[in-house]
Design a protein that fits this description.
Length: about 475
């Protein structure tokens, strides 16, 4: 009876511990949801974001003031004037007044703050073929440039040792009094690229109105985040316009217009259960095959916890959300694996930085170098010490990418593991072979090459139709 009572007490204590842990987890989840909601709310309102940044820093920097001025310009829609009520540290208010002609009248002021200060910012309108700017220039926005104007732009960029990117959607130009291009910047997706100023116009503030015009166009189209590729020596210039460094190599610099955007993304995918030796792999899975599954299982076996990143860019035959869902379903039986999306930071052709390189043959090398730099920053943030890739005996581009990682990762404390691919009758199982079978109408034949989750997806006729439409 005593033994039975002790066992009952032990079970009761375990139940209590379990209930308490569940309650604690519930409270933590609610707190995290509340914090995420506050972050999303701030991210949707550039004013809240800017003010939060200034309150957090409690220090005056020229970059902060310039970033706020740019926010004002972007939100005016090129209007003649704009006013807003907000709270800012007094030092930042003073800096804004020093850097621009903004009159600020503090209302109900408190020590160190301008409480509900009214801010007015006058901006001249610039439309296509619009009026002359204050210093003799005119501004133009085209979506995109065509014909002779496009050829003129290509020639100008070539003189600046840049190359026009064929996917550009919007181009902002500033012309001098003689009608020649003095400065330009373009937008593709959410990436600002091909930014150039003629040496004769440098130092006259031509870049800022170009970025303002592109930011306004991006906001009109619902693009709330912008990235910028440039040369490393331009970091100071763009830092003063509200861009922050993400990663750099000796030839390229990736920046974004959200302060701590990279850190916020990295922290959002951090797995609380990750411990021990942490590994990572990045895959597209278009679609997921048994070859992918084999590589994932081998990678997981060579570390204590594996971060598996699925490419987010939605340009593959299998939609991005479906690719990630298939992978999650296929790995449901495996433990110690976290499946996450690459977001806007890893492997995206939209941010391929070859537009400013004269030697196009070096573009692939620069991209792999930049991807390695971004991954190394992520690895440091999450504590990842191993990166896994599949061997690539056929594709020279992927093989070169693996070689770049092999050179760049180990010196920074990240071991690279190259895993052999799963073969069938001496031939590696590949997503290319699966795509070709589906294209040929033999989708039933892929069952021996893919996990059940992939086959189930292709068994749906609507999915096959979408796949074939996107494949073409």
């Amino acid at each position: 009876e005593i033994t039975s009572a002790k066992q009952a007490l032990s079970r009761a204590e375990m139940l209590y511990d379990s209930l308490f842990q569940n309650y604690a987890d519930k409270l933590m989840n609610e707190l995290e949801q509340q914090q995420d909601a506050e972050r999303r709310k701030a991210a949707e309102n550039p004013w809240l974001t800017a003010c939060a940044q200034f309150k957090e820093e409690q220090a005056l920097t020229e970059a902060m003031a310039r970033a706020l001025i740019e926010r004002v310009a972007a939100n005016t829609g090129m209007a003649v004037s704009f006013s807003v009520g907000f709270i800012l540290p007094m030092k930042v208010v003073e800096a804004i007044g020093t850097l621009s002609s903004i009159p600020i009248a503090p209302l109900n002021g408190q020590e160190g703050f301008a409480n509900h200060a009214e801010l007015q910012y006058n901006i001249p309108k610039h439309n296509i073929g619009g009026p002359t700017m204050d210093y003799g220039y005119t501004q133009q926005l085209a979506s995109p440039l065509r014909g002779e104007a496009l050829e003129e732009l290509k020639s100008f960029l070539s003189q600046m040792e840049l190359r026009y990117a064929p996917g550009i959607e919007h181009t902002a130009l500033i012309r001098d009094s003689e009608g020649s291009i003095a400065a330009t910047a373009s937008l593709e997706g959410n990436v600002i690229k091909c930014v150039a100023v003629d040496p004769a116009g440098q130092g006259q503030g031509l870049t800022a109105p170009l970025l303002t015009a592109l930011r306004q166009k991006a906001m009109e189209e619902g693009r709330r985040r912008l990235f910028l590729y440039t040369k490393p020596e331009n970091r100071t210039q763009f830092s003063g316009m509200g861009f922050w460094e993400v990663a750099r190599t000796d030839r390229a610099l990736l920046m974004e217009d959200k302060r701590k955007g990279f850190e916020t993304w990295a922290d959002s995918i951090r797995a609380p259960q990750a411990s021990g030796i942490l590994g990572a792999a990045v895959m597209n899975c278009n679609p997921m095959t048994l070859g992918h599954l084999y590589l994932i299982e081998q990678a997981a076996a060579n570390c204590d916890f594996l971060y598996l990143f699925i490419v987010s860019e939605d340009k593959s035959a299998v939609p991005a959300e479906d690719r990630k869902a298939i992978v999650e379903a296929a790995l449901s039986r495996l433990e110690h694996i976290s499946v996450a999306a690459t977001g806007q930071y890893l492997i995206s052709s939209a941010t391929f930085p070859d537009y400013f390189l004269k030697d196009k043959n070096r573009a692939g090398e620069v991209w792999t170098d930049m991807d390695a730099a971004v991954f190394l920053r992520l690895a440091e943030r999450l504590g990842i010490s191993r990166r896994f890739v599949g061997s690539e005996p056929f594709c020279p581009v992927t093989n070169a990418y693996n070689q770049t990682l092999a050179r760049g990762l180990p010196p920074r404390g990240v071991e690279l593991g190259e895993l052999p691919r799963l073969e069938r009758e001496g031939i590696p199982i590949s997503a290319t072979a699966v795509r070709e079978l589906v294209r040929a109408g033999r989708w039933q034949d892929i069952e021996a090459l893919v996990p059940p989750a992939t086959f189930a997806w292709f068994s749906d006729g609507a999915n096959r139709e979408r796949f074939l439409a996107r494949l073409s």
